[in-house]
Amino acid sequence: MVEMPTSTIIRPGMQRREKVESIKDKVAIVGMGCIKFGENWDKSIDDMMIDAAYEAYEDAGIEPSDIQAAWFGSVWAGETGQIMAAPLKLPYIPVTHTENACATGSEALRGACYAVASGVCDVALALGVEKLKDTGFMGLPQTRPWATWSYRLTTQTPPAVFAMMATGYFAKYGLSHEEGKRLLAQISVKSHHNATLNPKAHFQREITIEQVLNAPMVAYPLGLFDCCGVSDGAAAAIVTRADMAKSFRADPIYVKALQICQGPREGFMNPAYDFAHVEETCRGGAATYAEAGVKNPREEISIAEVHDCFSITELTIMEDLQFSPRGRAGEDIEAGTFTLEGKLPVNTDGGLKCFGHPVGASGLRMMYEVYKQLQGKAGPRQVKNPRLGLTHNQGGEPGAATVSVVIVGNEL
Predict the structure, then answer these.
(1) Among 69, 189, 314, 376, which residue has the fewest nearby CB atoms (within 10 Å)?
(2) Which residues are catalytic?
(3) Angle separating helix axes 362-374 and 104-118, nearest 10 degrees
């Protein structure tokens, strides 16, 4: 278990509380919607938001007029909440535009949950969306003048920095190139298999380990099938008070913990950083488990949707979230622990690798899968008797990450 810092600066006039309140079991998700991710040339960003929102409305049994506040997550759609308020016809209510890199969708859900928990509204909407295919965005170096990142945007790519993570992990734990590549290939094969059972996934084709090993190299040692795709997509959630939830539906899903963890962005400057873990995931996961009351994640979590932007990321997340011991995630991968039939199924819908990664929507897409699994409505990819589900987003890069971890359950 990661040790959390306990010291806090107490300013004059302040009195430290012995115990900070938790959001556990104060809020429930009573409706969700998610469109098919992919190259949605025939849909505008407005179309995707409308489709996702109205599926969520129908699932919750509500009308748009029942929404009292909304949180809109998108990285690339533009500025202000009007982008969502206008097409969804949500006039004159609070609509907040959130952005937190790849954790944007989860941040929108977090905002809606905390608003409901605070008592300022009873029914809130969280929606994430991204329309990327029309832009030509493909994860290559950007020239957009971001003040805090522009010095590196033209000198690196996401595949390159996660390739450094792969070589860092291989070196730390004594894996040869061939051993490491084959281990990562099993993750990609699993994701593709799960996606064949999911009609909303972007990529729905089985692949073999040999295809992964022989695929074109993108950034050594990561090949084509080690990298997630860029997609269009939208997903939405309806949030209400836990004590109201069963007036909407018989099987609401209760929020147990919501955490965001931001790091100091020092990985590239710290010679001690090993490129074999993400500290923000370690600490964010530990804080989430503490809030949810989870003592043994490997035994208590029934299903997890994690941020597999690259195959190496899923591997290290298994250790950072305490699903596998340090350096031994490979043993669990070889044993099938994280498959649909395994002890702890991971990325049952295909993950970022195959469901797709429209940045602002991914966190809510993950929650959509967990929501359906906990209700027993995931069809051919349904896991057995799930009780607690976890979602994990990781924005940024190794050594400079923005991490979200959320735990929900089907019981109070």
Answers:
(1) 376
(2) 102, 357
(3) 60
